[in-house]
Amino acid sequence: MLDKRMSVDAIVDQLRDGMTIAIGGWATRRKPMALVRAIARSDLKDLTVIAYGGPDVGMLAASGKLKRLIFAFVSLDHIPIEPHFKAARQAGLEVWEMDEGMLHWGLRAAAMQLPFLPTRVGIGTAIAENPRFRTITSPYDDGETLIAMPAIRPDVALLHVHRADERGNVLTLSPDPFFDELMARAAGRTFVTTEKLVTTAELDLPANARFHLVERPLISGVAEAAFGAHPTSAAPDYQLDLGHLRTYAAAEGEAWDAYRAQFIDGDAQSYLAAVGGADAIRAIPAPVY
Q1: Cα 37 from Cα 229, distance rounded (Å)
Q2: pLDDT-derived band of residue 1, with 50, 70 and 90 as boundaries?
Q3: Is residue 104 within 8 Å of residue 110, measured between CB atoms?
Q4: pTM > 0.90
Q5: Nearest by Cα to 195 from 158, 146, 160
Q6: Residue 284 dihedral angles phi and psi, to the nearest 5°
Q7: Rounded to an integer, what distance in angstroms lies between the CA atom of residue 200 and that of residue 67?
Q8: Has residue 2 got a pLDDT over 90?
């Protein structure tokens, strides 16, 4: 299929109850929040989410979409523990928690079409005592005992990129692409939102090869969604909106319905207006860590 353009809602229509969905980005960086808000508005349920989590996980938890979470952390960075995730976990959300390196290795094993990859990550910690993990002995002279990290295979990966064309060529311009590439290679299908949909010539792929993380056959659909990562960052286009993240975090509990009505239930244009508009987002300074 040469033309992979879709709407955000059309991507969500490709998802099904009970699916395992990898959500790209990292905490407050480059989360596909336009898609997450659309999932929150949908009738989908019983989802398993794989993430280096941020407000994506918290918003889906607060909206009652999660059955299970596979994760290394869920954080808003400046707000260390995501409050909606914390509330869901305290209420009994099923989780598989692991070290960041183990999640990396599980995605990499799936991306390489391998059943597992050996690792020292987790050795000597309580995480290694989880019965999901098994050990393997090195076949070489060292005879070292290693954890055999099982492949983690999502049904679908959802990513946010900076530029894309209608064929599914994508550019991720951030200095920190993290594990989006592995999620795309591990998943059965991958859908992306993009800040700007441009022509193939405008992508200038030879000059931008290092930003071109995956081949276009891995991309099943592309939806243009300007500011589609807000309130997380899509640097260099815009930075994270810490003010809005504080508003979002404060909505845990009784204030959630009001937050949802103002920021989730409307369309993209009403969301952009509610958070101050395009110029206000572009003017947000880079965060200080």
Answers
A1: 10
A2: low
A3: no
A4: yes
A5: 160
A6: -65, 125
A7: 39
A8: no
